[in-house]
Amino acid sequence: MRLFATAWWVQLRLLSRSPFFMGLVVLQPLAFATIAFFLFGDAPAEQRTLVVLGAGLLGAWSGTLYGAAESIFMQRFTGTLEPIVAAPSSLLVTAYGFAAATASLGAYAIAATWLWAAAAFGVRLHVASPGWLVLSMLSALVGLSVLGVALAATYVLTRQAMTLSNLLEYPVWILAGVLVPAAALPDPLRHLGRILPLSWSVDAIERSASGESPVLPLLVSLALSAVGAVGARWLMRRFEHIVRVRGTLSLR
Amino acid sequence: MSVLRLSAVSGWLAFRALFAWNTPGLYLTSLLAIPLLQISFFALLGSAAGYQDPAFFLIGNAVLASAMAGVVGMVTVIADERRFGTLAHIVASPAARAAVFAGRAAPTALVGAAVSLVCVLVGAVVLSVPFGPGHVPVLIGLLLAAGFACSALGLALSAFGLAYREVFHIANLTYLALMICTGANVAFADLPGAVQVVGRGLPLTHALAGVRELADGSTVPASAFGLELLVGAVWLAAALVMLRVFEHMAVRRGTTDLY
């Protein structure tokens, strides 16, 4: 727990001081929310609420994606990846700390989008069940953390981390139904998106806002996150072994 | 070495150096895949909102794709020199720094225009947008003008990299501004007046209007080319001034080798 907390705190402070990263998690959701508000025009309050929440999650995913890649990339670039891997402490726990930090910054995204929507577009959030909404948001951040660890494992293996990050941003936004409603997707994409915990969290968030019961999608999201955690653990251990055998950790 | 030759050699070496850390396949994939994914995202969002048809977002985001190479790519030119520890050497060299960095704008402008062209043509086939063979030269001209203007803006922004370490967020912020203010995803006429004023001074706005006219089957006014080139020329002039100013600032502060 202490290792997790330390990794989380250090990464949170590092990323909070990065103008690039804060621009990503704060300004990018504002831009997408702005575009969405123009597109949806005089939509009802419920729709505008979903735009705010969706744009916030959009920033949370970007933060996780680039945060997971950035953390490993910077460790590799500065030559500290080898000591981290060689250290007797668990690389997996450290990675979870990093991923949780980036997911935590998703809270900045959601708060910033909410404030911007209120100030620039006069949007008032319409949420039937605030308590369930908070839990649904937390489940989304948990799912993002697990995905972040799986990505971090991949980035240990390859030097092309940042380029791969760029390719994963939009697909997850589309498949998870973030901002773009899942109902608007073709059936194959909608079914494919159901393997992502985030898509079930988005479902839970929508139900919390509308007053329907979010329990089922919430539980499915957490179950998928648990499965993902097992997979991330296997990936991390497998790739750690591979890079030790190949001796490629120090290569930029 | 003449200024033109210096620019050309610098541009070629910078383009070639891209593949020291990135494979051509992955580079090209990311160049094309990201704009196509962005087009898909906004086309789906627009459809869900009942705002415009998918072709609107195709054209907007395809033209916007030139901004990724032009603006973001150019900002990383100086930022990467700092990251790899070679910025101080360039600043200290007797070569004209403006020529060195301006030379790198040409590859990014051409790459940006090429990416936009591919996205427009692929999307046009998928969505049956009526671009005929006769439209292609006009389209290429508009996209080259857009690529030039974006690279000029990117060069101006990259000047900040001479004095400051953190400049990548400037590129991102600019890209987001182009996404909103140029009419790429929201019809230009639907934007607030103040935003339109800003948009007219940014790259892409005029070229995008021309491409939309082309897609509608109308004649593209010469002003679309002229205004886009004018915007690019103004940003290029600003870039040359900013490179001088920030280089002087960096030398005075001794910050060229800080990372």
Number of β-strand runs of chain B: 0
Q: In percent, how helical is the residue content of chain A?
A: over 70%
Broad structural category of chain B: mainly alpha
How many strands, which pairing sense, and closed or not: the largest β-sheet of chain B? none
Order of helices and strands of chain A: HHHHHHHHHHH
Oligomer classification: heterodimer
Number of helices of chain A: 11
Secondary-structure element series of chain B: HHHHHHHHHHHH
* Termini separation of chain B: 30 Å
Instruction: Give the strand tally of chain A.
Output: 0
Could you name the key traits of this structure?
heterodimer; A: 252 residues; mainly alpha; 0% strand; globular; B: 259 residues
Structure notes:
The complex is a heterodimer of chains A (252) and B (259). In chain A, α3 runs antiparallel to α10 and α10 packs antiparallel against α11. Chain A has eleven helices and no strands. The two termini of chain A are 31 Å apart. By secondary structure, chain A is mostly helical. In chain A, 81% of the residues lie in helices and 0% in strands. In chain B, α2 packs antiparallel against α3. By secondary structure, chain B is mainly alpha-helical. Chain B has twelve helices and no strands. The model of chain B has no long low-confidence stretch (mean pLDDT 85). The longest helix of chain B is centred in the last third of the chain and has 32 residues. Chain B is 77% helix and 0% strand. Chain B is elongated, with a radius of gyration of 19 Å. At the A-B interface, α2 and α8 of A face α2 and α9 of B.
